[in-house]
Each structure stands twice: as structure tokens, then as C-alpha cells.
Amino acid sequence: MTRQEIFQQIQQKASFLCVGLDTDIQKIPQHLLKAADPIFEFNKQIIDATADVAVAYKPNIAFYESLGAKGWESLHKTLEYIPKNIFTVADAKRGDIGNTSALYARAFFDTMDFNSITVAPYMGVDSVSPFLEFEGKWVILLALTSNQGSQDFQTLTASDGRPYFHHVLEKSQTWGTPDNLMYVVGATRGEKIAEVRSLAPEHFFLVPGVGAQGGSLEDVAKFGMNEQCGLLVNSSRGIIYADSSENFAKTARMEAQKLQEEMKKLLDHYL
Amino acid sequence: MTRQEIFQQIQQKASFLCVGLDTDIQKIPQHLLKAADPIFEFNKQIIDATADVAVAYKPNIAFYESLGAKGWESLHKTLEYIPKNIFTVADAKRGDIGNTSALYARAFFDTMDFNSITVAPYMGVDSVSPFLEFEGKWVILLALTSNQGSQDFQTLTASDGRPYFHHVLEKSQTWGTPDNLMYVVGATRGEKIAEVRSLAPEHFFLVPGVGAQGGSLEDVAKFGMNEQCGLLVNSSRGIIYADSSENFAKTARMEAQKLQEEMKKLLDHYL
After folding, report:
1. Disulfide engineering: A98 pairs with which of A29, A126, B155, B267, CB 3.0-4.6 Å?
2. What positions does the domain Orotidine 5'-phosphate decarboxylase occupy (chains A, B) (predicted)?
3. Other beta carbons within 10 Å of B259
4. Out of B60, B127, B156, closest to residue A167 by CB
């Protein structure tokens, strides 16, 4: 999927919402446990309920992997069920030496047909490049995350006085372009998003941490939006677990729509 | 498995060899493709042929994941087949926010029964700690790798004049101990191994990059060995793909034994 296609979808739906499919067998509504594949059944109903307001779906791979071969099958089915015009993110945070990253790329881009994958930068160029070689596919590189541990290494000051994540942003732009490389940018503080935006003006950011993890959507838009929106804002728990009754899909839709309406206002204001 | 148990095995076998199970359907001997599960059949024969000279097996998870649900099953069967007194490493390089890392820990330590997993440090404490909470299990944290991209960020100089990987070594020792935390340390240069050893005197190192990836076993022992050996040296391709004929297991054994004999000499010399 091209950058232009992502932007078109954002305009059509007046939304930059990514729905995180962190589907946990212990958290889904009881009545679904009777289904042949409860995880897929849950995802299917969430997708049906939100596909007109979401521009991206992001299955968190750990949730599927923790169920072994069965989880892997639920993931495959989920991915096949997502409408082809909606952007898909494998939130896998992979990264290994070249020939191993190439295998992960094959797994997520060929065996499955994800549009993008989140990648960790620590092992450098040959851990990232194999993912960039796939035409029409995207790397979403960890730059600045919003979890507690992000303060341990990401913000460490380098000898040139700049934090480490600046170097990740700068160096990685010699590997990929705004047409095949996005960044994960945490949403806890607006000024941090502005800082990343100044270093990567054209790139799309995948922003977790709005909603349950704190972080204001208004700040994200104010400090992070560029001419093509440049934002995919994720919400997982706030949407998919808003209601644990048989009405879960309806409630999920309401929550997604609330975010979409707020996003519409922000798009109208800033674009 | 405890540190003492690992050391006892090293002494008993006079070996610190880890065999990497980077099992690729495109590289295994043709005649195995007739088997119901060629990947498992290959691993089974490699394990049978090397179990008395190897102290650890390290399946590279990407190779299994790239085959989807079927690969996942081959991995399960392989892990169950490895004798319980041999240390097992899930070479997965995971690392995510706390609740997601907890799920990966569940996948590799509970759903499967790996003794250890390789973890990437970029997201900091809450991405690593969930793995450390499992009694008797190990984190093997990426410190200094030997691939080309290791020069991009790992060796970047911080404001205190020390390279970034020093900070990873130092900070992570406030999270784990030599009894549940090892480090991945690349083997391309002996003096680098000495540098890491000075910062982590008691910890075990998992050393890839001996053999096919270059790096001398003698240097690794000279600069990296501690009182409990403190080394698990991995060889993958040099052993498992030494021979593509029907004799592959026999040749793999010969190659593994060659390394073990060299290791015995080094253990006799340095311990």
C-alpha cells in the first residue's frame, strides 16, 4: 500500500484510527468461547463493527504467539478477513541479523500479507533493510516509545549532546524513505512528538499510548500532524475491551466512532 | 536450569558448544522432504548425532515462524525432543512493553518450555523484566552483536564517553543477576569480548559468529572465559549444513566433535 493510498483512506474516512487487535482469550466475552475459533470470532466482529472508521488494524503478535500453532491460525484468518484497502500492521518488534530478518520479512510479508511490521533498531542496518526490500511494504521502526523503560536507553544522551533516539531517526533515514519507513512514536508528551516531527517531517508515525496508556489525541495532532496527516493513532483496550457483554462489538463501534469524530475535527482544523 | 547445572554439563561434556538449529526447508537434504515433518526429522537426527557434545541447542525462531502454524509445530516437537538436561535457547530477540513481553514470556517459557530467550534492550526495563520473573528461566540480552549493523547504534558514544552497549550492560545488571541474565556477545574481535567481560565478570555470554560468521574460538576463550567457563559458543551452519547428503547427521557429528575437542583443550588450559 502506498503513502498516497493511506492518505486517501484517511481523507475518505475522516479518521486516522488504528485499532489494536490485542486479543486475549482471557478477556474476550464468555459467550464467544463456544465458537470454533474464539479469537478469530472476536476479531471478525470487531472488524465488522469498526471497518468504516478505522484506517488500520494492528494485531499484537505476542497475543497470538502465546497460543502456539492455534494462535498463529487465528492470526492468519484475521488478516485474511481485514478488507484489503485497510492498512495492516504486524506489531512484532522483530530485528535480527540480515538473513534472519529476511526470514521474518518472508513470514509477515509473504506467508502472511501484512502491509507493515514494527521493527526494533538495536542491531542496525542489516536488521532493518531486509524488510525494506519488499515493494509496497513498510517498516515501522521503534524510535521513541511511551513505556517506562523508554527512559533507559532511548533518551540517553550521546556524545554530541543529542538523545539516542535522534540518532535512530537520523541514521534510519539513510536506509528508508517516507514511502517505506514509518516510526513508532509514543504519545505521552506533546513536545516529544514535535521533536520527532522536526527530525522526520514527512514520515508517518504510528502512535500508541492514546487512551488507556494516557496521552492526548489533541496534542498528538497539534504537534505531530503533517500535510498528509502523517499519523496513525492506535487504540486497543479502550475499544476492544470497552464492554465484556454480548454487546461488545456495538460498544467497540461506539468507542471507535467517538475517536473518529474527534479525529475528524482535528483533520478539519489542521489539514 | 541453574547456572551451576549449566557449568556441570560443561564439565561433564568438556564442551561449551551450542548448536544452532537454523533449520531451513530449502537447505536440508532432499531425502528428508518425504518425511511427514521434514524440519522436525532433520532436527531429530541432528540432536541424536550431537547431544553428547552439545551443552545447548538454539532454534532460531524466524526459521520456524516463516513456515506459519506448521513451523510452530515443528518447533514444539523439536523442543520436546531435546534431552531435558541440555540448555535450550529460543533465539527470538523479542522485547515489547511490559504486558506484551509478559505474553512472549508465557509463549516461550510456559506454552513451550524453553530455558532461555534472547531479548532486545531498546525498550528498557519493562520490556526485559517480565522474562526475568520466571523462576529457573533466563534472559539472554543483546549487548554487542557481530553483524554489520552493530556499528550503527551499539557502539555509538554516549555523553560520558562510553559506548552505548556499556550502558546496556550496566543498567541491565540492576534488573537481573548472573543467575538469570546472560548476554549476547559477538565474536568478531577478541578485545571486544574482553571489554564486555570486564563489565560483566560473572555472567554467561552466548557467542554467535564463530565459524561461518568468522571469529576465532581461541580468542573467545582467551578473552571471555571466567571461572565457570561463562561461555556458550554457537555454531549453526558450520555443523548442520556441513553435508547435504544422506550422511548429513554423521558429518554434523564430526564437525561438532571437532569443535568440542578444541573446546576441551581450551577448558583444560584456562579453567
Report:
1. A126
2. 16-252
3. 23
4. B156
Closest CA relative to residue B40, chosen from B67, B5, B9: B67
Residue ranges per structural domain of chain A: 3-270
User: What ipTM does this complex have?
Assistant: 0.95
At A154, which helix (H) or strand (E)? none
Mean pLDDT of A189-202: 94
- Are B229 and B255 in contact, with CB atoms under 8 Å apart? no
- Annotation marks residue A137 as catalytic: no
Binding-face residues of B in 88-107 toward A, CB within 8 A: 91, 93-98, 100-101, 103-104, 106-107
Chain B interface disruption, residue of A65, A126, A144, A162, most B CBs within 10 A: A65
Work out the average pLDDT over A70-91.
Answer: 96
| Number of A–B residue contacts, CB under 8 Å | 178
Considering the candidates A93, A222, A258, A264, report the single residue annotated as catalytic.
A93
| Minimal C-alpha gap between B190 and chain A (Å) | 20
Residue of B nearest to A171 (CA): B152
The domain B3-270 is placed in CATH, from the list 3.20.20.140, 3.40.190.10, 3.20.20.70, 3.10.20.310, at: 3.20.20.70
Rounding to the nearest 10 degrees, give the CA dihedral for residues B5, B7, B13, B14: -170
Q: CB count, 10 Å around CB of A142?
A: 26
User: Are the beta carbons of B124 and A150 closer than 8 angstroms?
Assistant: yes
Contact residues, chain A, for B126 at CB < 8 Å: 147-149
Q: Do A125 and B149 touch (CB under 8 A)?
A: yes
Per-residue pLDDT of chain B (271 residues; tens, 9 = 90+): 999 999 999 999 999 999 999 999 999 999 999 999 999 999 999 999 999 999 999 999 999 998 888 998 999 999 999 999 999 999 999 999 999 999 999 999 998 999 999 999 999 999 999 999 999 999 999 999 999 999 999 999 999 999 999 999 999 999 999 999 999 999 778 889 999 999 999 999 999 977 655 678 999 999 999 999 999 999 999 999 999 999 999 999 999 999 999 999 999 999 9
CA distance B165 to chain A (A): 10
Q: Do B120 and A124 lie within an 8 Å CB cutoff?
A: no
Show Cβ contacts of residue A251 under 8 Å, excluding neighbours closer than 6 positions: A242, A243, A245
Sign of CA dihedral A243, A245, A249, A250: negative
DSSP state of B119: E
The 10s digit of each residue's pLDDT in A134-187 is 999 999 999 999 999 999 999 999 999 999 999 999 999 999 999 999 999 997
